[in-house]
Design a protein that fits this description.
The chain is of the alpha+beta class and about 450 residues long. It has helices at about 5-30, 160-165, 190-200, 200-210, 235-245, 290-300, 330-340, and strands at about 35-45, 50-55, 60-65, 70-80, 90-95, 105-110, 115, 120-125, 135-140, 170-175, 215, 260, 265-270, 305-310, 345-350, 360, 370-375, 405-415, 420-425, 430-440. The protein folds into two domains: about 35-125, Immunoglobulin-like, CATH 2.60.40; about 135-445, Alkaline phosphatase D (PhoD) (Purple Acid Phosphatase, chain A, domain 2), CATH 3.60.21. The strands form four sheets. It has a six-stranded mixed beta sheet, with no helix packed on it. Strands 12-13-14-15-17-16 form a six-stranded mixed beta sheet, covered by helices on one side. Strands 3, 4, 6, 7 and 8 form a five-stranded antiparallel beta sheet that branches. Helix 3 packs parallel to helix 5.
């Protein structure tokens, strides 16, 4: 074939164009980048923990800047060589302190000395002891793979879009925030992989950036279904949990339990997996002695109006044949007795796991009634308990059963001494399903 000058010129331009496209693709793929985040976690009037997932970056430098004055407040640096890493992707948590109350801050992020574009803002809390606030909550966030969407179109994670648009101060995850699949639970790399997949989903990424996030875990983000403390890779689970959720300091104890104060509310985030035994074991436990003593000390020393005990398994439900604290009756009674004997006011249980939502109320002799708000599922399969033995649970507050995708919203409002806890449940289109008010005066003996 004879190539004339015009054809040769065209061929040369085509080759150069293809080379340029390949070079651009190669360069962009090899550049350091943020693949998820930034996301705020534990935030106070003077500090904030920031999480992000970076790719192919050896050096991470983050400067926090006061938005109004553009004054650089603090720069923190990290090296991916000293952090947990999988396939060149590294979760990074940085804790910024000495911040001003009720102030907006922005971030300047350098990855290997290259400025990364982001429009992330975090706002510190006002330095007051009592203030109205709102938080979202939910559990069971399984998003089905795309090949299953034709069969389960409702399990795409659409619920995180309206949640992102809610005016809330933070989100509280009640466990089963990811679901390990197949062999993923057999190695720390498998667990890491599942978290990567979920954090890269656009709806999830956008929601996580929209407000501070706090989390406990349950069986599916701890290990196998219904797993307990004998799970051999539970230390690896702890490592993953601590690297993907910027909760308050986990301390030196084993497990992932922690707590934080939010104005006049105490949040006790328990670990219902690490120490858990089988109910038929001798001296069975769900929380373990060390964690129980820790929780009792927080309850006894707290002057909070409301004290939310957050755990993956239902506490009050005695009709639950699957997993419930009621299957550990001695330990559960010990908690009830401690609340009564020490006159601990304001206790409300927040739980997940069940793939339906409901509010349970139990009358306690010589004490005030206890409430257990179970909120589930966000995007996992919904279970229709109306067709089971739980259909007529006598502890369920009337008209609070929800058997579709939903999320919860709790608002703490009112003047000091007359605070109200308003519990609401919304479907995945943000339509309200029910609401229930608990005055602080109802949670005192």
């Amino acid at each position: 074939m004879r190539i004339n000058e015009n054809n040769f010129t065209l061929l040369k331009k085509t080759v150069l164009f293809i080379h340029l496209i390949l070079q651009i693709g190669f360069t962009s793929a090899s550049n350091p980048s943020i693949v998820s985040g930034p996301m705020a976690g534990y935030t106070t009037s003077s500090s904030s923990k920031i999480w992000m997932l970076v790719k192919k970056a050896k050096k991470i430098s983050v400067t926090i800047i006061e938005k109004s004055s553009q004054k650089e407040i603090m720069t923190l640096e990290a090296s991916s060589d000293s952090l947990l890493k999988y396939k060149s992707q590294t979760p990074v948590i940085l804790f910024f302190t000495d911040l001003k109350p009720e102030t907006e801050y922005q971030l300047k992020i350098l990855l290997d000395n290259v400025l990364s574009k982001n429009n992330f803002l975090v706002k510190t809390l006002p330095d007051v002891t009592v203030k109205d606030f709102t938080f979202l909550l939910g559990s069971c966030a399984m998003v089905f793979p795309k090949w299953l969407w034709p069969f389960y179109p409702q399990n795409k994670g659409n619920i995180f879009v309206p949640m992102r648009n809610f005016q809330a101060d933070f989100m509280l995850w009640l466990g089963d925030n990811v679901y390990y699949r197949g062999r993923e639970q057999r190695s720390i790399n498998g667990m890491f992989h599942r978290h990567l997949v979920e954090r890269k989903r656009k709806r999830m990424r956008d929601f996580l950036k929209s407000m501070p996030q706090y989390a406990i875990w349950d069986d599916h983000d701890f290990g196998p279904n219904d797993s307990e403390g004998s799970f051999p890779l539970k230390e690896n689970s702890c490592t993953i949990q601590k690297n993907f959720w910027p909760n308050p300091d986990y301390g030196s104890q084993k497990g992932v339990y922690t707590h934080f104060r939010y104005f006049d509310a105490e949040f006790i985030l328990t670990d219902n997996r690490f120490y858990r035994t089988m109910p038929e074991d001798s001296n069975p436990t769900l929380l373990g002695e060390d964690q129980l003593v820790w929780m009792f000390n927080i309850l006894k020393n707290s002057d909070a109006t409301f004290k939310f005990i957050v755990t993956g398994s239902q506490v009050l439900n005695e009709k639950n044949l699957n997993e419930s604290h009621s299957h550990f009756p001695a330990e559960r009674q010990r908690i009830f007795d401690f609340i009564r004997d020490n006159k601990i006011s304001g206790v409300v249980f927040l739980t997940g796991d069940r793939h339906h939502s409901e509010l349970l109320k139990m009358n306690i002799p010589n004490s005030y009634p206890l409430f257990d708000f179970t909120c589930s599922p966000l995007s996992g399969l919904a279970r229709h308990t109306t067709k089971t033995h739980e259909a007529t649970n006598p502890l369920r507050v009337e008209n609070t059963l929800v058997t579709e995708h939903n999320f919860g919203k709790i608002s703490i409002t009112g003047t000091q001494g007359n605070r109200i806890c308003l519990i609401q449940t919304f479907d995945e289109n943000a339509n309200i399903k029910w609401e229930y008010k608990i005055p602080e005066t109802d949670l005192k003996k």
